[in-house]
C-alpha cells in the first residue's frame, strides 16, 4: 500500500481549510501512538536541556505537526523545519505565518545533502529514516549539524513488525519505505561509530500498540486505498472502534515494551573535552 496518496488527500484538505489545521494536528496527536511517545520524550529533553533557548531542526516536518507542538511547548526556541516536498513546505510556511509563529522557519532540504555545522541543540526525525536508502550519510550530517551536547531523536518503525513485516519474505505495508525498520542494535551500530552516544532506546507499539495500529490506522487506510468512497463511512467506523483503539494505545504507552513494531531512539553528541 502507498501511504503518500492518502497523506496528500489530508494535505489538500488542510490547505483548503486552514482554520481546521490546528484541530487536524490535535487529531493526529490523539490517533497516532507514535505522537504520544514523541511528545512525551520531547518534554523530557526540554527539561534536560534547561531553560535556555534551543535551536531545533525538524528533519522531515511533513504537515508541520511537531514543529507546531515544539514551538508552543518547548519554548523558548527557534525551529528550522524542512522537507523534500516543496508544496508541503510552502503550505506550512503560509499557515505558520498566518498564526504569527515567528520562531519557526521552513526550507526545502534533502537530508542526504545538508551541510549545517554545529547549529542545533536538538534534531527531531519522525518516520523519516525508513524512507531513506543512504541513512548513514544522513546520520553523519545530523552529527555535524548538532552542537556538542545536542540530542538526536529518531522515531521509526522497528524490524520487529514495523511496516507490518513479520517474516523476511514479506514486503513493507507502506510502499514508500526503503527498509522495514531498525533495531536498537542497528541504530547503535550506525550512530556510535560516527561519534554519537546512545542516550535512550525505547520500543513502541508492543502487543497492545500493534493491535491499536491495525484497528485505528491499517484497516482504514486499506479501505481508503480500495476506494475513496470509504471516506463517507469512515466517521461511523471510528465512532464504533476508537474507544477500543484509545484504550489499547494507553496500555501500550504505560507498558515497558521489550520489543515492539516501533522504536524511539535518542542519541547525544558528546560535549567537547
Give me a quick take on this structure.
The chain is of the alpha/beta class and 273 residues long. The chain has a single domain (4-206, 257-268), classed as 3-Layer(aba) Sandwich (Rossmann fold). The chain is built from nine helices and seven strands; from the N terminus they run αααβαβαββαβαβααβ.
Note down, in words, how this protein is organized.
By secondary structure, the protein is an alpha/beta fold. The chain has 9 helices and 7 strands. A 7-stranded mixed sheet has the order 3-2-1-4-5-7-6, with helices on both faces. α4 (65-73) links the parallel β1 and β2 (77-83). α8 packs antiparallel against α9 (234-254).
Keywords:
273 residues; Rossmann fold; seven-stranded mixed β-sheet; 9 helices
Kindly give the count of domains. 1
Biggest sheet character: 7 strands, mixed
Number of helices: 9
CATH class: Alpha Beta
Strand content: 15-25%
Remind me, CATH topology?
Rossmann fold
Overall pLDDT: 90
Unreliable sequence segments: 168-173
